[in-house]
Design goal:
Layout lengths: L3 H5 L7 H7 L19 E2 L6 E4 L2 E4 L1 E3 L2 E8 L22 E3 L19 H6 L12 E6 L8 E7 L18 H7 L2 E5 L4 H5 L3 H4 L9 H16 L5 E11 L1 H9 L11 E5 L9 H14 L9 H4 L2 H18 L35 E6 L17 H12 L3 H11 L5 H9 L3 H10 L6 E6 L18 H4 L7 H4 L3 H20 L19 E5 L4 E4 L3 H5 L4
Parallel strand pairs: 3-6, 8-9, 8-10, 10-11, 11-12, 12-13, 13-14
Antiparallel strand pairs: 1-4, 2-3, 4-5, 5-7, 7-9, 14-15
Helix pairs in contact: 9-11, 12-13, 12-14, 13-14
Length: 550
């Protein structure tokens, strides 16, 4: 195969389609193929990385042999009359549109980005533009229009339903997994918080009946764009896997229950997040009514909310949310997808009346040992005792606290009290609840538990929330502030990436890199522990989890 520099010396003389074709031969998954570090790494020009979409052509660039497209519109601007409305297609454009910078993040409040913030050091959040013209996606692919139909991975970002974007962390970058696995990787921005989930069905009439779920409908629109356009980027629209972490994992579970998403994806991966039902519609509608009341408007003037600057609406909606929280202390809901029984079904997903409502596709769920490690930023807690754990958790678990702590200590006798604390607050109840519900369908379910611990901050971060993302996507050397980098995380990362890629292709994560990964059943709770020494286990925390409900 010709080197990129040899090939692009001739680029000005050949058409964009021939450009793509010249780079179409790639080794099998897992081969160590890297561009020559002494050769030119970045290529961009009139006939380089040009792709056709249903709305017009886009021009990206080639970086280290991977074609990159950033900020491609999959929907129209969501401001003004489009606010609170289901997504609309973007307007077509003439000529070739640059797709070289990431699109705007949906309106939201930023994470702590101060220079003194350790969270900023660890995650170094990537944000630039912010606004309502946020329905954009990014594509990484090994080739264009080369006749190959590659599996497609669509990444859904975390941040709950309130924050985030498709390239929020460096872990989300698709270059390495696209190259290693010969796949197409996409990441998506969509509406969040009050812009994605303000439910005005009870006060706005027919026009607003779907307003409570437009943030999820955005993702459905992105998947429709993938279905309609990804073949032009070397992808296979009949083999699409959706994957997300934290809030992104909840989005995966919701999409698997939504009728509108059926047929747009074929496998699902949910990391450190879950969902078996959506927000209560009565609460969501009352929150919408509270927003209107806080604005001093009656139902006849609801359209005025569409004409407010987005900053003003975000502030108004947050005041209304806080008012409801004050009126109903202990009830946590806020702005999130709604069980309206139109776009998202009522009741428990995947079971009973919802058994055939959504997508019956293979699902892989994985969580980390120490999602919410209590001494991450509090080294003084490292030496706590089991009695200390009981005291700290008493306000949360009440009379059950000591029973829960003792149950986890018995199930994990080799763990120190601070680790027991982390296991308790990071318990797998939601993951298991979702896995059990999904088992009502015919497609297989697989469960993982990630236990590799970060050596940073004197080892206190452990297997924390978000650390596993860079392992799945082969970015452990890119996300150094999570992993420390080097051979140890890289070795596990390749095993996990192999399992993910095999799951994408076959619906089964079993591969040569790992021991046999059994299909999950509620009876045995089979799972794969992902650590320096990967191994299968049968529900090792079942007796401990039982203490929450006994």
């Amino acid at each position: 195969m010709k080197s990129p520099s040899d090939f692009f010396r001739r680029a000005s003389a050949i058409a964009a389609g021939a450009c793509a074709l010249a780079l179409c031969v790639f080794p099998a998954q897992g081969a160590e193929r890297h561009p020559d570090p002494d050769a030119q790494q970045l290529f961009i020009g009139e006939n380089i990385a040009v792709a056709q979409t249903a709305y017009g052509k886009v021009r990206g660039f080639v970086l280290r042999d991977i074609f990159c497209f950033r900020g491609i519109p999959y929907g129209a601007d969501t401001g003004g009359e489009n606010r609170f409305m289901p997504p609309r297609p973007p307007e077509a454009w003439e000529g070739v549109r640059p797709a070289v910078a990431y699109g705007a993040s949906a309106p939201q409040s930023y994470y702590d980005r101060r220079p003194e913030s350790y969270s900023m050091f660890v995650d170094h959040w990537n944000y630039d533009l912010m606004g309502e013209d946020c329905l954009r996606l990014n594509v990484w692919t090994p080739a264009l229009d080369d006749g190959k139909r590659r599996p497609v991975l669509v990444w859904l970002h975390g941040g709950g339903f309130a924050r985030g974007n498709g390239i929020e962390q460096d872990s989300y970058d698709g270059e390495n997994i696209a190259r290693y696995g010969d796949i197409v990787f996409c990441s998506v921005n969509h509406r969040l918080n009050a812009f994605g989930f303000s439910d005005f069905a009870s006060v706005g009439g027919e026009k607003y009946r779907r307003s409570g779920n437009v943030g999820m409908l955005d993702i459905v629109a992105a998947l429709q764009w993938v279905h309609d356009n990804i073949a032009n980027f070397g992808g296979d629209p009949t083999n699409v896997t959706i994957m997300g972490q934290s809030g992104g994992a909840s989005k995966v579970c919701l999409l698997a229950a939504m009728p509108a998403a059926k047929g747009l994806f074929h496998k699902a991966v949910a990391l450190s997040g879950d969902a078996t039902r959506a927000n209560d519609a009565v609460y969501a509608e009352r929150l919408g009514e509270t927003i209107l009341r806080e604005a001093g408007l009656d139902a006849s003037r609801i359209d005025e909310l569409q004409r407010m600057p987005w900053e003003a609406y975000m502030e108004l909606a947050e005041r209304a949310r806080q008012r409801m929280a004050d009126e109903e202390p202990g009830y946590r809901a806020g702005f999130a997808p709604v069980a309206d029984d139109i776009d998202i079904p009522e009741g428990t997903f995947y079971t009973g009346r919802n058994l055939a409502t959504g997508s019956d596709v293979p699902m892989l769920l994985c969580s980390t040992y120490h999602e919410w490690n209590p001494d991450r930023d509090n080294p003084e807690l490292e030496a706590t005792t089991l009695d200390g754990v009981v005291r700290h958790l008493q306000p949360q678990y009440g009379d059950r606290t000591r029973r829960i702590v003792e149950a986890y200590a018995a199930a994990f006798p080799d763990r120190r009290p601070i680790e027991i604390w982390a296991l308790i607050v990071s318990n797998r109840q939601g993951t298991i609840r979702t896995a059990n519900a999904k088992c009502s369908q015919r497609s297989p379910v697989y469960v993982g538990w990630f236990g590799w611990e970060s050596p940073l901050f004197d080892g206190r971060h452990r297997a924390f929330h978000c650390i596993d993302i860079s392992f799945w996507l082969l970015n452990t050397d890119r996300m150094l502030t999570h992993t420390g980098g080097g051979k140890a995380p890289r070795t596990l990362s390749k095993k996990m990436a192999d399992a993910l890629l095999h799951f994408m292709r076959t619906g089964d994560p079993n591969c040569k890199a790992l021991p046999a990964w059994p299909r999950y059943t509620p009876e045995r709770g089979e799972l794969m522990i992902l650590d320096t020494h990967c191994r299968r286990a049968d529900d090792p925390d079942r007796s401990a989890r039982a203490a929450f409900t006994d």
